[in-house]
Amino acid sequence: MVKNRYLGIFIILLFAGISFSCKNKVKANSIAPDFVLLDLKNRPVSLKDYKGKLVLLDFWATWCYACRMSIPELIDLQKRYKEKGLCILSISLDSPEYVTNEELLKFKKMMGINYRILRANMKVINDYFDDEKPVIPTMFVIDRDGRIKAKIIGFNPVALREILRRLLDDY
């Protein structure tokens, strides 16, 4: 039983690990595509606003179980590394027709989310996923110079913490 559990964890880590697609225009060390998205109070937010910060872009949705599992981890990371310049920008793929901004604000409060939630548009999805269908959660780690350092597909807190530790320790 224990061996099967560890095998399952290994398989999950193997498939949910760090990845870069060859056909995707977003590659390791490439400049992260800029965007202007609206937050839940309809204020525009640009990636350029976070130049000089370490940015974690989290593509997610409220209906996604793995995304919900990642929220406590992201809350902890934001608390732990905010003073070192970490900024988490959470990009919701929820359809505004089905999940309104007011409902997302309630969800944010209920979950204790301490980072900014933005609404996705087709441009940001195309810029970050190109021809691929978005798999969520997918997280992009963007360094202080605006370069993509990692793309993590799935909820992989071990890989995420290691990447952030390495980038924050180098600062």
Task: Give your account of this protein's structure.
The chain has 171 residues and is of the alpha/beta class. The protein has a single domain, classed as Glutaredoxin (3-Layer(aba) Sandwich). 37% of the residues lie in helices and 20% in strands. The chain has five helices and seven strands; from the N terminus they run H-E-E-E-H-E-H-E-H-E-E-H. The protein has helices at 2-15, 65-81, 101-111, 122-129, 157-169, and strands at 36-38, 44-46, 54-60, 86-92, 116-119, 138-142, 148-153. Helix 3 (101-111) links the parallel strand 4 and strand 5. It is globular, with a radius of gyration of 16 Å.
Straight-line distance between termini: 43 Å
Q: Which quaternary structure do these chains form?
A: single chain
Helix content: 25-40%
What structural category characterises the helix and strand content? alpha/beta
Query: Which descriptor suits the 3D outline?
Result: globular
- Count of runs of 4 or more consecutive helical residues: 5
Largest sheet data: 5 strands, mixed
Write the CATH architecture name. 3-Layer(aba) Sandwich
Mean pLDDT: 87
Q: Enumerate the strands of the largest sheet in spatial order, edge to edge or round the barrel.
A: 5-4-3-6-7
CATH topology descriptor: Glutaredoxin
Cα-based radius of gyration, to the nearest Å: 16 Å
Taken together, the total number of domains comes to 1
**How much strand?**
15-25%
CATH 4th-level superfamily: Glutaredoxin
- Which segments are poorly predicted (pLDDT under 50) over 5 or more consecutive residues? 1-23
Q: Name the helix and strand elements from N-terminus to C-terminus, one letter apiece.
A: HEEEHEHEHEEH
